[in-house]
Amino acid sequence: MSSENSEAPVNNLLTVSSTDDSIANCHLVGLMPYYDDSTKLYEHALAMDLAIKHLNEGDGSLVKEVEGLNERCQNIEFSNSVIDSTFSQTEAFRAVDELTRDGTTTTTSIRPCGFVGAQFSYLTKTTAILTGLRGYPQLSPAATTTALNDKGEYPLFGRTVPDDGTMAEAYVRFFHSKLNIRHVFVIVENDPYTLSILKSMRDAIRKLGFAPGADGNEEDFFYLEERLVEGGRLMDETKRLEELSGAIDDLRASEFRFVIALTGGSYMADPMMEIAYDQGLAGNGDFHWWFFESLGDLNNTKLERGSKLHKAYEGVGYIYYNPERTGERYEEFTKQSRAIKQEWYKMQDVDTNNQMVLNGGLPYIKEDEWFQEDGYVHIYGAYAYDATIMLGLAACQEVSKQDNTNASLVLEGTSYFDTIRKTNFTGVTGFVKLDATTGTRDGYTVGYNIDNMRPYDDPDGDDTKVLFLPTTAYVQEARSSNWTTKAAYIFNGNQTELGPDPDLPPVQVTLVTIDSWIFGFSMALMGLILLATLGFATWTILYRNSRVVKASQPPFLLLLCFGIAIMALSMVPYSLEHVDIEHTDVTCYAMVYTLTIGFGLTFSALFAKTFRVNAIVHSSVTFRRVQISFRDYVYPVVIMFAINVLLLVLLTVFGTIEYGYKAISQEKYGRDDQV
Known about the structure:
Blueprint: H1 3-6, E1 15-16, E2 24-32, H2 39-57, H3 69-72, E3 76-84, H4 89-100, E4 112-117, H5 121-134, E5 138-140, E6 157-159, H6 164-178, E7 183-189, H7 192-207, E8 223-229, H8 237-254, E9 258-262, H9 266-278, E10 288-291, E11 301-304, H10 308-313, E12 317-322, H11 328-346, E13 349-350, E14 356-357, H12 380-400, H13 413-421, E15 425-427, E16 430-432, E17 447-457, E18 465-476, E19 484-485, H14 516-542, H15 547-551, H16 554-569, H17 571-576, H18 585-621, H19 635-669
Parallel strand pairs: 2-3, 2-4, 4-5, 5-6, 7-8, 7-9, 9-10, 10-12
Antiparallel strand pairs: 1-2, 11-18, 12-17, 13-14, 15-16, 17-18, 18-19
Helix pairs in contact: 2-11, 2-12, 4-5, 6-7, 8-9, 12-13, 14-16, 16-18, 18-19
């Protein structure tokens, strides 16, 4: 086949069955990175195996729509395998390219019908471009970045897990409405997954009307201060510690006390929490740390009692999707999965490199107890089961529209994906419904939990260890946007309630006082000014009939003395503001009243006197004799005095109203910065 033809979309995704050439085969391929003891990998493959079994047997014990599928679609059967997508985009691309380039695999000679995966968003974005180009539908049970909603880039990509948008919206609403938090510091790892969460939180803030600075948001806002750090599992440890230390320094400078850490896993979270503890920004009851679902790595982890991580992690919380991991349906899901586990355990083999492997070529998991556990460690297995079921149901619907012979059955990628988007059913994770445009699961068809991580005594009796286990404290049910409390949340420092200023330190008001001699000196200066104005006023009255004084108009001179005396009196309340005594509103108002009235009288009198002199000089130019009385030019003084008095009255009235509003608001919110 030429390279040009190899790049064209594959129209018929069905192949002849390896067991019966009269039956078409729909082979589903799981994409997961292989790494030692990764229960995510095995649970992904386990869930796909169970789903394939149900599709082939028409077993509707978990999904009613599967009941009798083997009878409705007799000419099609299903098979599956899991390939290593690795942690490299290049290797993931190469693995999918090998499967889809000529329509056959080098190992099974079966053309893929569709793909289930991959786990990480950055790998999924790479593989989804290629599967879309080649005409293969791909459903992910784990990749949540909102960028994958772009149908121009990823035309045949969908997912049974919601994207980050709805969960971010739920998280923002939780902090804002449930905890009454307004300021959050975000440390975000430079990764497509974490950056998608950050973008989704920004979008949620705007969507919910909490954007700071918007009209009416003086109190009802939600503010994020962000710090981007370089990370990654393969990053040099020294460089990683430098990045995290810089982020913690910025956290200290911000003075924020609520922190959301958007990291890919414990490889970033553990050193970050140790650095924060060393700098007094974690583990002391003053700072509260929150994570997204990545903190699930801490679940069932033992730490040294009294260690930095023990104290720093105590009381942290994280949000995650809740795919209804309770009830009869999920119990049956885990029960049937355990049976397949036992089959795996009995079918161990040795590969060509003399390495122990499970049936199907999966690397052998060293933890034998995993085979004995009833449930799933991670939530992605349930989403992988639903993704496989959705691909099977849609394939059956597509071939049911065609002739009832194997030779004429065609499964074309674009039409197949359109049917996938329209396929709804109640699965292990609840009601599964994809958005008609993006192919992403409706975010409100699943619930969301916020778990509180708490340390417990080691059940094995080791007093030097503590076991961290989650307690579900808050729940947002499917089809709801409200958070309900399920258990008391215990914050760091063994607190069950937050104080009045949980996200910012309380405002520290420090009274800067002056020495007593400075206060005495200012009072002496005020007394000197008052004596001087009294003396000048007395002299003006005594010599009011003298030619010079009469020409200067004694009423204006007396007004000047009176205005200066009132301004001098403002030194008393101004000085009292810097003296360690009890202060009242009278002191504050007295400063404004004395200074405003005194200044107004003084300069309005000077203006009136200057205006009078100007009139006299102007009349002399025309050689006219004029007689100007005090009454003729006193009106600027009266007008200025009246305006000042009116403004001061309004100040008093509105100040009283504002004080009452503050009292009411503080009683309502219980916080100073809310008013």
